[in-house]
């Protein structure tokens, strides 16, 4: 009897969910409600890749060896330091008779659940990967549970583009929801997006504008990103600041918006941005943390220590309809699409 | 020139807020807007104390030595493993001429900002403490900044009781706010409090009831706590489950409430409760994480992996009026007061 959340694949410790497990069973034989994917490519979480890349001083071969070790030891690509994973792209290979996912063999899909809970087995030693990019060509198989989520890749978009969009599709969906909540309460909010030129950041900016934000500011770390984001015209204003410097960040946001932001969205994958985000947010405002580098304690104690009356949301990667919403933004917002395509080319 | 958030006390690294600093300057000389407290007692954060106690296998002398080392090295009681601190009680010793805190020398106060950002210097080697309780008798001094918060201890309550209440006063205030938000939206929510017999848990249960929750369940780990909480009559129902076992926890909550909870409040100080809390919460519901043992990544990826459409809040220790609200609960809810007093006696 298989569990819809994959408990039967947990090898140790017993009783936890797959995401909390040290090790999963990546046996290719599918249970009645499981699906097996023939993997083509992994898309590592940005915080995870950055940690590995920095740890090995940019030595791609060492990064590849460590990723292989993690997958071999854990039965999944779950970075033990950052706690994060990523997602994958592949083709449906076999569908158990009781799977509720509406997938069929041959469907080209992206998984929308994290690699941290996806049984994974690699057969090519990641030989096609140089260890220097989040995009990892990969042969092997992965398993989906009954309660997993996968999106069939649309025909009208480059699969790499779709994968990049789907990887962060929770961010625009939740930003949309929070902005609309303010509007339902009778006021159009100002929105600051920290890391506004990145993947989740540019989608969050587009979502905030479509949802009816009064003004938006995208904050970026360097002048080149400022110029790109300004040219894209996605935000009312663009500011340059180091997100790890609380005073510099909050000063930049207030200068751009005329006051602290009603909603601050954190989309940068470096640690230490919690305090700056809190200081950038108005009393009664909301901070949405999407970065996997966020420290729970730093956020909770930071707000308390600053006597900041802000609502702080853990960015949930799942919002109903998030995949379709993010793909529709990509089709309807050519500026966002241009930013994504430029980033994919640069990778 | 002193900074209202204490930047001038940060010794390393430069530019961060005091909570993020490795080391603070605990010099007793007060700046123009600072206040110096003569410390009587520290109240260590539960997660911090438990980590130290477990690390040293319950050896009180070793725990004391490590706490002293932390304070000496960091200029604050900031546990480097859990990232948490606690609070303190003492008497106002000196008030800078520009302090906005409305304190005067001789006021007996509890600090409502975390010890993780409070400059602290100990003069008695914690000689009165056996290292076996969160309550640490202590001689020394601490510094408050302009934007710190301290509550003058009320005359009508035992100071130890007030300290215990003020330590967790963000939990009932935020629970009250979230429950009232549901009611404003037209429905009286069900509320599960994980760790319902503890300090923050019992206050959260009382707050949920007063705010108009339809039903509440307090979840506790052992039969003795079940009996105590049942006798207190604070919750509609009381259930026993291990909060680290997602299936057991969510089954217990659903059995008690008849369905998953609209609001789940996590008040237990052990790691690994994120998945159970998410599984215990209905689609469209809210999880409030108050435990400092919460992992941001486990919560974010857990919800995504379970395709759970839940709003997840980082429990902000500051809500305007939180101290007065928690103390008023203590005066008006004799069952909560009895639970607190029993716990203090047991300590």
Please write out the topology:
The structure is a homodimer of 347-residue chains.
Chain A: E1 10-12, E2 23-24, E3 35-44, H1 46-55, H2 60-74, E4 86-95, E5 108-111, E6 120-122, E7 135-144, E8 150-152, H3 159-167, H4 170-184, E9 190-194, H5 199-211, E10 215-220, H6 223-232, E11 237-240, H7 246-257, E12 261-266, H8 274-279, E13 281-289, H9 296-305, E14 311-314, H10 322-332, H11 334-346
Parallel strand pairs in A: 9-10, 9-12, 10-11, 12-13, 13-14
Antiparallel strand pairs in A: 1-2, 3-4, 3-7, 4-5, 5-8, 6-7
Quick structural overview:
Two copies of one chain form a homodimer. By secondary structure, chain A is of the alpha/beta class.
Can you characterise this structure?
2 copies of one chain form a homodimer. Chain A has helices spanning 46-55, 60-74, 159-167, 170-184, 199-211, 223-232, 246-257, 274-279, 296-305, 322-332, 334-346, and strands at 10-12, 23-24, 35-44, 86-95, 108-111, 120-122, 135-144, 150-152, 190-194, 215-220, 237-240, 261-266, 281-289, 311-314. In chain A, the strands form 3 sheets. A 6-stranded antiparallel β-sheet of chain A has the order 6-7-3-4-5-8, sandwiched between helices. The longest helix of chain A has 15 residues, at 60-74. The first copy, chain A, starts with 9 loop residues before the first strand and ends with a helix. Chain A is of the alpha/beta class and 347 residues long. Chain A is built from 11 helices and 14 strands. The interface between A and B is large, with 58 and 58 residues.
């Amino acid at each position: 009897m298989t569990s819809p959340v994959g408990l039967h694949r947990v090898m140790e410790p017993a009783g936890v969910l797959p995401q909390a497990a040290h090790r999963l069973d990546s046996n290719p034989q599918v249970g009645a409600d499981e699906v097996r994917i023939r993997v083509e490519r992994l898309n590592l979480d940005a915080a995870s890749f950055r940690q590995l890349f920095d740890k090995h001083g940019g030595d791609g071969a060492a990064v590849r060896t460590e990723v292989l070790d993690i997958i071999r030891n854990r039965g999944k690509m779950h970075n033990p330091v950052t706690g994060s994973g990523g997602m994958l792209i592949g083709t449906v290979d076999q569908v158990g008779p009781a799977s509720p996912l509406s997938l069929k063999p041959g469907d080209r899909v992206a998984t929308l659940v994290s690699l941290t809970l996806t049984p994974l087995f690699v057969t090519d030693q990641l030989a096609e990967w140089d260890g220097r990019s989040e995009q990892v060509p990969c042969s092997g198989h992965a398993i989906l549970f009954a309660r997993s989520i996968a999106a069939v890749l649309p025909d009208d978009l480059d699969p790499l583009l779709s994968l990049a969009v789907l990887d962060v599709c929770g961010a625009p969906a939740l930003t949309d929801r929070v902005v609309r909540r303010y509007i339902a309460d009778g006021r159009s909010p100002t929105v600051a997006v920290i890391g506004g030129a990145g993947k989740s950041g540019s989608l969050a900016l587009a979502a905030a504008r479509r949802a009816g934000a009064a003004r938006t500011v995208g904050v970026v770390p360097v002048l080149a990103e400022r110029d790109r984001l300004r040219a894209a015209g996605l935000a009312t204003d663009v500011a340059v600041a180091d997100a790890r410097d609380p005073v510099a960040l909050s000063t930049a946001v207030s200068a751009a918006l005329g006051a602290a932001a009603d909603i601050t969205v954190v989309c940068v994958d470096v640690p230490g941005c919690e305090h700056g985000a809190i200081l950038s947010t108005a009393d009664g405002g909301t901070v949405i943390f999407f970065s996997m580098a966020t420290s729970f304690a730093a956020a909770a104690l930071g707000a308390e220590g600053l006597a900041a009356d802000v609502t702080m949301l853990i960015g949930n990667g799942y919002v109903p309809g998030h995949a379709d919403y993010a793909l529709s933004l990509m089709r309807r917002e050519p500026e966002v699409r241009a930013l994504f395509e430029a980033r994919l080319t640069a990778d």
